[in-house]
Each structure stands twice: as C-alpha cells, then as structure tokens.
Amino acid sequence: MNSLKRLSGFVWIALGAIVIYLLFNQAGKEIAEAAAGKRPLLDTQMFWYIIIPIFLPIIIGLLLFGWFAWKGEYDVIARDSEHLT
Amino acid sequence: MTNSSTTNEGMEPKGLMKVITASSVGTLIEWYDFYIYGAMAVIIAKQFFPQDNPTAAFLAALATFAAGFVVRPFGALVFGRIGDIIGRKYTFLLTLLLMGGSTFAIGLVPGYAKIGMWAPVLILLLRFVQGLALGGEYGGAATYVAEHSPKGRRGYFTSYIQTTATLGFFLSLGIILLTRRSVGIEAFNDWGWRIPFIVSIFLIAISVYIRLKMAESPLFAKIKKEGKISTNPLKESFAHKANLKMVLLALFAAVMGQGVVWYTGQFYAQTFMERTLSIEFEQVRYLLCFAILLATPFFLVFGAWSDKIGRKTIMLAGMFLAIVTYFPIYKTMYSLADPKAKTEIADRSSVSTAVTVNAAGDSTLTTTTVKAFTDGCSSKMVKKEVKLADKSKPAPKAETTKTFWLSSSGFWFMMFLVFIQIIYVTMVYGPIAAFLVELFPTRIRYTSMSLPYHIGNGIFGGLTPFIATRLFDASKTTENPGGDPYIGLWYPILIAGVCFVIGLLYLPSKNDEDVSD
C-alpha cells in the first residue's frame, strides 16, 4: 500500500503540472479571442483574472502534496500532537 | 457556566445539548445572512449595480466572488488565529457580530439612484466583512462542539453543526418567500427585499445573548491553564511540514470533494432548474425547501453512523454515489421539464401579441406564447422586440424569457431527485466536522481546520454553479445553439473523482478518538 501511495504521488505532481498548463493556455486563448472582439472583453478578463490567482496557490498545494506523498510522508498518518507540531 | 461538568470524556448530555444549541443557532444565522445575498443577487444588482455602468458591473462581480470564494479562506486565517490564541468563545462571538452588523447594514444602504457609486462600494465592503466573518465562524463552532463531545459520539454531536448550513439556506428561502408573498412581487423588488436583511439583527441579538452565556471550550481552557497555547498558530499550522501535510491531506482527500458534492446538490441543482430548465421561481424554491427539510435529519444519521463505521467510509461512499449517479439524475431532471418530449394540447395553447410605443417613438412588440401539455405541465415564452424610431441606430437584440411549470407529479419527482442529491450532501458533509477536528491538535485546531474547509467549500464548492454554467454557455455553438446541458457536471465529477482516489489511498480508516492532545 505504501508503494502505491508513493507512486501515485508522481500522478498528483503530473496532474498539478497539467492543470497549470491548461489553465494558462485556456486563459491566453480566451483573452486573445476577447481582445479580437469574439467574446465579451470585461467578462472574459474578469473570469480569468479571478480564477488564476485563486487556483494557482491551490495547484501549488497539490504539487506539494504529490511531493510529500512521493517522499513517503503519508506512509504513516500521525494522530497525536507530538508528531504534528 | 456550562463547563463545570466537563471532562476530557465530554459533557453530560443535558449540558452538551445546550452547547450544541447555542453554537448551532449562531452558525445557522450566519449561513442565513450569507445566503440571502445570493438568493436576492438579481434584485440587489438592479438596486446597487446598474449594468450600463461598467465600473459598477465590475464591483458587482467582485462582490459576488469576493465573499463567496476569496475572502472566506482569509477569514479562516484571521479568526482561526484569534481563536487559537484568545479562545473559541470570544472569536465566534465576534464573527457573529460582524456578520449580523454587515447584513443589517446591507438592508439599509441607499440604492445607486440616491448615492451613486457609493452604493456599490459600500455593498462590496459589507460583503467582504460577511465573507471574513463566515470564514471565522464555522471552524469555531465545529471545534467548540467537538471539544465538548464525548469519545465515540463526536460525529453525532458535531453533525448538528453540519445541519446549520442547509437549514440557514432553508431559512433564507422561507423568509424570502414569506416576505415576497406578504408585500407583493412589485413592492418586494422595490423595497421589500430589505426586510430579510433587517430581520437579521433580531436573530443575531438572540444568538449573541445565548452565546454570551456559554463558557470557553474545556480543552482550550485546559491548554490555556497549562500554558500550552500556541503563540503563532499560523506558523505552526502552515510552516511546519508535519502539520502542513495534514492540511493538504484534509483539503485534497476530503474537503475538496465534499465541497463540490455539497454545492452541486444544493446550488447547482437550483441553477440548473432555473437557468437550463427555466422552471418557475417559486416552484424551484418550494421544491428545494421540501427536499432540504426531508434530507436534513440524515446529517445526524450519517454523523452518528460515522462514529461506528468511520468517517472515511461514509464520506467516500457519498462522493462515489455522486460521481456515478449525477448524469442519470440530471438527465431525468431535464426530461421532466423538456417541452420537446411532451405532447402539446393545441386548444389550450395560445399566442398573443401587443405593441407599446414610448415617448421617443420606439415601439416594443411583445409576443406571448402559452403552451399546455397533456401531462399537466405548462410553459410561457415572452419575446420582446424593440424597433427604434431612429433607424440609423442598431436595433437592440430581442429578449426572450421562458418559464416552465411542472405538473404536480413532475414537481414531486423533481423534488425526489434533488432530495437524493442532498442525501449525498449529508453523507459527505455530516461527518466532516468531526473528521477535521480529529486531524489536528487542540493548540492549532481552529486555524488548521478552517483553511482547508473554506478552500474546499468556498472555492472548489462555491465555484461549482459558476464554472458549470460557464461550461454550459461555452458549449453553445451555431450548430448546437441549445448547448450541452450536462457538460457542467464534469467539473464536480472530476474534482470529486480525484478527491475520492486520494481519500481512498491516504485517509486513515479508523477515527482518532482522542482530541485532547
């Protein structure tokens, strides 16, 4: 089970990287379309200017989670404060 | 004072019920305050954010986003820190006052017509305060009840706190419907919408009175006496790897999926019925009220059950059921209100037109099409086309509004489909407070559990109706102008799917009975 936990850590890192790529790619595409008059400019800009700063730190959190998992930090889940703080 | 009979094993049942009531009433009122803004967003937008002013429109969008998604996690950090340093009792008393004060003030702010741009600015600021207060409230209430609860029954007792969000939503729907019925639709849209905001001050006064009589959490009081209080809970929660990894685990293995299942069941279902299916305003609200009322006891059922079979099993089962049944549920919902799939009664259907001309000479042609169907459903479509007197100006786009009324059997079947979704909500949300409390130590519990909770619910969950609706709008093409009505479901399904796998792999199956550490 612990090897599966560790191996899937790589999956979460890859997933985080893919989501970052898709996020910026889609934002760039839509903002360019809005600038060209194919979409409502204000709505499109506002959507991405809000979505990116909100989701970017969370995705970084997912990368970190994957890294911890890969390093075996979740092999044993600590249940008492001595091991937590 | 209530903690005289408190030990690490929890309180006497009578005293504990007082603690639960005092905490739950306040939290319920905070949710009520938060939801009435959302439930009346369209009316508020017309009063404070005129759409022909781009700056005001920008502020409107910010007001909606800010409190719901961005500010809540900050509230969790600010009040979580205070709660871990000063104490649970005074912190969630403060959040209650802030929430009540800002809600009451929203009801008093003059409209854009009277004070211009100050109106949207003031609403935005008050909405910020609402979001901050909500961010601080939940963690405090959940921690407070959990720290009073006995071992082996923490899931059951904290599930009372879990009912408050749904009941707050129910209360907001109920008060809005009652006010609308009492003053009439026109007066409600003009000034009556202020009543649900103003009423909040009385609810808050009662809740503050109850909470003032409460004592500090026994576990917090104990560590305070022993001098073990954290001096910097933010640093301890997020800068120490051992605790940070638990915060990440809570977010990605539980709260992220719980958030999307919750917001899909209660809020996206509402958006889907109103925007995609065009079901009539009051029918949607009555239907939701029934579904919520019938499903709410299940928060307690699953909370109590999680004490016996484990939080993980129930939460992940709720996520799994949601993932595999959302598509069939929404397809059935669609079929209940799809005029194309129904047989029209020709002699009970009609088309009427009316033309009005304003002072400038612009004429408006209104075409009203009413249809009745053999299964008892009916629909009304109103199309307004404006022809300008000045032919050199481009004519505005025709406006079409559709309204669909479900038959009696359709209403109850639709209610059942929403009820099933809220059952999933009770499965994922009922045990989550106990789960989060058990994951973190007392000295940094308020801070540590509040942040993942509000990211999962405020951001992943809160964005569900918005992202799902945007996906639906984006699926409309010239070849398929109606769009794909189910495409929005991919967002909650994918998020819940990832969360389910992470939860299955990494979450411990056994509950942590000792939260006094």
Provide keyphrases for this structure.
heterodimer; A: 85 residues; 0% strand; B: 517 residues; Growth Hormone, Chain: A; 2 domains; four-stranded antiparallel β-sheet; 20 helices; 69% helix; disordered N terminus
Which spans of chain A have pLDDT < 50 for at least 5 consecutive residues? none
Low-confidence stretches of chain B: 1-8
Fourth-level CATH superfamily of the largest domain in chain B: MFS general substrate transporter like domains
Q: Briefly note the CATH topology name of the largest domain in chain B.
A: Growth Hormone, Chain: A
Number of helices of chain B: 20
Radius of gyration of chain B, whole Å? 24 Å
> Oligomeric state of the chains?
heterodimer
**Overall morphology of chain A:** elongated
Secondary-structure arrangement, i.e. CATH architecture of the largest domain in chain B: Up-down Bundle
Tally of DSSP β-strands of chain B: 4
How many distinct folded domains of chain B? 2
What features would you describe in this structure?
The complex is a heterodimer of chains A (85) and B (517). Chain A has helices spanning 2-35, 41-70. With 85 residues, chain A is mainly alpha-helical. Chain A has one domain. With 517 residues, chain B is an alpha+beta fold. Chain B folds into 2 domains: 3-337 and 408-506, Growth Hormone, Chain: A, CATH 1.20.1250; 346-404. A 4-stranded antiparallel sheet of chain B has the order 1-2-3-4, with no helix packed on it. In chain B, helix 12 (241-276) packs across helix 13 (281-295). In chain B, 50% of the residues are buried. At the A-B interface, helix 1 and helix 2 of A face helix 3, helix 12 and helix 20 of B.
